[in-house]
């Protein structure tokens, strides 16, 4: 009998308890042992739940129960998730989480503490919901020279952008629709401003490079500024707009991490990832590009990833290949030499003055503004060109990188 | 120092040796030990290769060298791959392969023998080339009630079908083009008749269910009969045609396995998998649908999967969760109750006689023939309806299942 405790009986916690009950046969066969949800920690009581008798309010009961092998932290937020994780690991309990905030902020510390105590800290569900992505990134691709990990990491923003592309909605209407369907929170800032995607690309960066960038150092731009005019211009050049988290790795191992709306050519499969789905793409030599795709959120899907971690702990014992993270401030020198093309839209501009500022451009037909694609530019060259164009009397409305 | 022997110095064997050399730093760090390619077994000599001094012609040298930990079998074909695998495992050596034929035919025996000898038998590269798919299927999704595993498992046929869709080519021209680009062999039968996809879906079935169906029991249809008229009809109803391997699993665990051209609605991401790429999709409860995508062949990509297996052996030791296969003749009762819609094209038919034979149909506008979509039918109902239509004087030209 393997005893587990679930911290937080919300959507994910409920999903985990349900999976362990509904799929008891699969889980017992796979893990090689019966799993018992001994405790569920929550502030609330759940008198009508079939798990009512496991609900407790005092974490120290779990901490002090030597029968509890594994703690499943699905509370969200940094505190008290941080404290409970430290206390669990210190007492020799494995910890599994779906909480990207706490992994992005303290994953380095937790992994070191787990190692010290001979237990596992796992977080497959923290990125891409149910998609098995972290586990194959840890186990299957690192023999390659990785040059990029990128992804559509937030289902809410991808749903909004898909609506804007399919129905010509503006951002506000698409957001309202997402809220009415339960895909966006009443306060949608963490999604639409890119905060959620930023945490996830920080975690992916750490898996790829061992360096966990502090999230406040990652240039992060949300989708609130995307206009129907941008959607229309993107379509004219055969692209979709996606909120993309990217970690680009130089040959010397320097990294440049960012979150920003990005134009993706439609012939890339990533451009076809629609609605609330997520996708994570790994680029390396000699593997080429591989992609992991699926539902990025939801009780069942996230629970699948959490229980998958539990199965791996039960089957493999302590993985000697567990990742090691080291906190870092993002390097900036490398990002200065990275070049990209940009889509630019401006008022009071003309093709000729755009060309004077940017060099050879490809104009996009736009009825009410001047829109064009720039040559390949570094960040510095882009700023310089934008400045030139602005000085000629134009005002920039949109500026979106092309993948 | 970990000593390995490579059996077969063709495209994949060369790719493996190159990866171990080019990415020596990555591989040593990841595996925790330096890897030495001690032997390369081939019938030929390679005097100009940097590995010339490792090339040998006698397998017993490898078999009897206790320093060889792991044998990498990338020869292809059933024999002598079978014998070398048995002899390696029996002498306590791990075996890694990219050889789908030998896995589909003897995987059950090899896995049992590996277990008996306390070593690993791994074959990530046998399905989907470099895509990490088997490993996550083994480790990350089996806590779900799986209802289907399906995939675009053959890059050659997917390239041909993509050409037919993009350029209106007929099958023969698209095949010639694939041959001229090196994507298809001079004798393309194993690809275009579905044999290769059949082996791969047999392996995926075994991973999902533990039952390895004998390939001669799997209904297998290739793409040689696909006409430009079918492509055009598919487009009219918003579908692509893909050669799909499918393993459908009933709630009772019965399985129905098949390989056949299949119409896939364009709003499914699987329909957008183009060119020589492969994709494997897993459907389960509560995970939903997840997909693994990437290059399905090629020296570098396949080598990445082979070396990934080596890394996992070196990091994790013997995986207690290694799959167990049991050979089986395919069950047929379940496939008799499975229902699907079909696209049918017929000569000398009319909408009215089609409806008399099939029930309510949706006609597709086709200039030179009668084309339509049937209601949901079992195999038996389909045969019955086809018989009725034929008896009315019509002749069936195309009959393709819709996903």
What structural keywords apply?
homodimer, 403 residues, alpha/beta, Rossmann fold, Dihydrodipicolinate Reductase, domain 2, Alpha-Beta Plaits, 3 domains, nine-stranded mixed beta sheet, six-stranded parallel beta sheet, 15 helices, 25% strand
Topology:
The structure is a homodimer of 403-residue chains.
Chain A: E1 2-7, H1 11-22, H2 24-31, E2 35-41, E3 55-56, H3 59-63, E4 68-73, H4 81-90, E5 94-97, H5 100-116, E6 121-122, H6 134-140, E7 145-152, H7 155-167, H8 171-180, H9 189-192, H10 195-209, E8 211-213, H11 228-236, E9 239-249, E10 255-265, E11 277-285, E12 288-295, H12 299-316, E13 326-328, H13 333-337, E14 341-347, H14 351-358, E15 362-364, E16 370-373, H15 379-391, E17 395-402
Parallel strand pairs in A: 1-2, 1-4, 2-3, 4-5, 5-6, 8-13, 10-17
Antiparallel strand pairs in A: 7-9, 7-11, 9-10, 11-12, 14-16, 14-17, 15-16
Helix pairs in contact in A: 1-12, 4-5, 5-10, 7-8, 14-15
